[in-house]
Amino acid sequence: QPCASECQAPLAASLAWAKVAGPPQPCAMASRSWEQVDFIDSQSRQISFVMSGNTGHVIDLYINGKLKVQQVKGLHAVGPKIYFEGRGVFCTERKLVVVGPRTAEIVARVLALQRGQKVQACCTASP
C-alpha cells in the first residue's frame, strides 16, 4: 500500500503548476487563445473565469488569483447570481454573486464564455 506522500505527490505537482501558471493577467494577454472575465464578487474577492480555446473551450475559475474550480460547466445565472459545477480544488463553492454597476454586462460575458463566444479581453469591474 503506497504511503500518503506517494499519493499526494501528483496532486501537489498539479497544484504547483496551477500556482505558477495562474490565470492570464487582464490586459496583458499575448495570445488570443485565452479569454477571461474578471470581477469583484459580493465577498470582495477577485473572480476570474478563464477559458482556453486551445483545449476545447475549457473554463476554469480563479478566486484571488488561485485556481479553485477546474472544468467549469453548467454555468447559468439568476439575476446577479452565477451558478456552476466543476472539479473543485479545495473549494466546494457553486455560486458567486456579482456586484457593482456593470452586473448585467458581467453576467452576460461569463455566460458567453460557456457558449464559446469571444468576449472582450478585459472586462474588469469593481463595486
Q: Please provide the count of β strands.
A: 6
State the low-pLDDT regions, or none.
Answer: 1-33, 121-127
Structural class: alpha+beta
Strand content: 25-35%
Largest sheet: 6 strands, antiparallel
Overall pLDDT score: 73
Order the strands across the largest sheet as they lie in space: 1-2-3-4-5-6
Helix and strand pattern: HEEEEEEH
Shape: globular
Describe this structure in words.
The protein is built from two helices and six strands, in the order H-E-E-E-E-E-E-H. The chain has helices at 4-21, 103-114, and strands spanning 34-40, 46-52, 58-63, 66-78, 81-88, 95-97. A hairpin with a 2-residue loop joins strand 3 and strand 4. Mean pLDDT is 73; it is low at 1-33 and 121-127.
In brief:
The protein has 2 helices and 6 strands, in the order αββββββα. The chain has 127 residues and is an alpha+beta fold.
Which features would summarize this protein structure in a list?
disordered N terminus; six-stranded antiparallel beta sheet; alpha+beta; 127 residues
Any chance you could write out the topology, listing elements then pairs?
Elements: H1 4-21, E1 34-40, E2 46-52, E3 58-63, E4 66-78, E5 81-88, E6 95-97, H2 103-114
Antiparallel strand pairs: 1-2, 2-3, 3-4, 4-5, 5-6
